Amino acid sequence: MNDMNTFPPPLWGRLAIEQYFIINWNYSSTETPAQQRKRLVTDFLDEQSFPYAWTEDWDSLPEGVDQPREPTTEEVDTILRPYRSDLLRWHAMTMFYDKICPALLRTHYSADEGERAKHDDLMTHWISGDPFESEAWWAVLDNADLFNFGSAWRRVYEILPEVAGPINPSVDDRLRIQRACEGEYLDCLRSRLKTQLAEAKADTEAWRKDRNAIIDSCAMELQNYATMTYLIIADEEAFLSGSLRVLYLDGFRNIIREGRMDPVDDIFNVIGLWMETDEFLQSSTVGEKYRASAESGRELYQLTE
Prior knowledge:
Elements: H1 16-24, H2 33-46, E1 49-51, H3 73-80, H4 86-94, E2 103-106, H5 113-126, H6 136-139, E3 140-141, H7 144-147, H8 156-159, E4 176-178, H9 184-200, H10 204-218, H11 220-226, E5 229-234, H12 236-241, E6 245-249, E7 255-260, H13 267-277, E8 285-286, H14 295-301
Parallel strand pairs: 2-3, 2-5
Antiparallel strand pairs: 1-4, 5-6, 6-7, 7-8
Helix pairs in contact: 1-2, 9-10
């Protein structure tokens, strides 16, 4: 396992959020620096796209691509350095290092020392097998001082907006990374969904009884296509039941599907399933915003009565 504490820190300005900070920083703002950074992180995460050049090694960028801007000493000292430690910047720099493995975020730390020790052992068990073990140096987010969020797991984005992905970014013809799925393939999947639903309606009793459940099931290909990243969470329930929470998310941090691993299962199976087939955890259910009647579901499926 790599020890990022022994590496020289990443060069300043090499992370997308750092470019966003220095380009959008307002020295005349009435906000405190911490408030401004927090707002800019939120703004960055809500951007529809960002430059591909912000995520790559500057020396390897092809000709014609605008180079990111080198921050000044003042920008480093005032804007960037106070944001987070070198270790966190290494996690950010190497996030989704293999473009397959998700991050594992621990959000529960018991106040009882005996319980905490048991939970520590369980964490070691969860990350001890392939392929996760070789990626744990960047993927495991386990620090009580930083990530003791309880149920408020989304706070991780304030510290590491890189967790939002996308896990395997695609670059459009403007050399920008899109946060939302797009393209002609969407129309193909929507057409296929309508065909499947037309067939499902033939069973009028089942359709009348729970048509939304049928739509959610038939729409799984579209849900899969819209998934930009996934996240494994070791929350309090995970330590009580042995079942890690798995979230499949769109580019704007909304849950598309979620579930819990079987206690006898392991992370290898979850990662392997996505790596080999792009399939969700079998026990996963549709997230609230992606139900057929919800805003994100309506936008993705584009169904009419």
